[in-house]
Amino acid sequence: MTEITDQSNKRRYSIGFSIVGSLLIIGFMAFINFSTGGRFPWFIYPSYAVLWWPIVTILSGRNMGKMLSLIGSLITIALLFLTNYLTSWSYPWFLFPSFAILWWPISVFLAPRNCKLFSVIASAVLIAFFVTTNYITTPSVLWFYYPLFAVIWWPLSVFFAKPKTIKAYSIIGALIIIAFLTFENYKDSPNCPWALFTYFPVLMWPVAVLLGRRFSKLLTALVGSFAGILYYLILNMTVFKGFPWVIFPTYVLLWWPMAVAFAKRGREMIFSIAGFLLSAAFFIAVNRITSPFTIWAFYPVFALVWWPLATYYFVYRRRLI
Which pLDDT belongs to residue 98? Predict the structure, then answer.
């Protein structure tokens, strides 16, 4: 009992000594600052260093790390604010280092124990920082939503990127991507709705997750490719008229069911022939549409014919032998 009392008295004396000693040093620095005719209160900088003495002495114990991170970050931000206010208040630059300092208490309090809460608060701090920076530096140019789009995936992944909630994650993620691309399209180029091109491939993400193993089936590939071709055909006929550009996504989408049906061991020959015929038809169609008086499709077709030729001699014939 006596030892506990002695330790308590020693701690009390140390705290009292550190407080009184730090006040004396700060007062001494302030006296020198103003007695020498200095207008700028430079004594705040040594005072900032001296304040760590009583702070560490008072907080020494089990929870020293948490309280030290909180109080230390507050006095550091206060010093930055005072320096900014006294030197160049027309531009609040103190916000930028303060943003970095805030991660100290946030990480100490939340990171080890509560990943979900940490992701929410940390992402909120990041978003607030980017919004503030956008407003201060370039208020006429709206750019903060780019990092916001990236940051929002952090808490979203922490909450939903799990086997039990992966379906909800894919649906919410696809909607966020579509919303971002739509907003970007509307803001920068409202006269050209290019975001419509991205909707189909983005929506295939939740479709693939919801279907699971059925997504690799031939029927799914046929229905999916037909839906994609129909979607881009409607866009070509209604929104983006003129040039029949639908042949390009059609060529890409037809590889999906063809690969599911023929890209297997034992069907290499059929796959090479089907791939050659599809590619040859595509190049001939593009040649016919774009430059009918110049026959250039012969060159890629000549290169493509080597695919089934090599497959026949080095795969199919070898297997027969």
Answer: 93
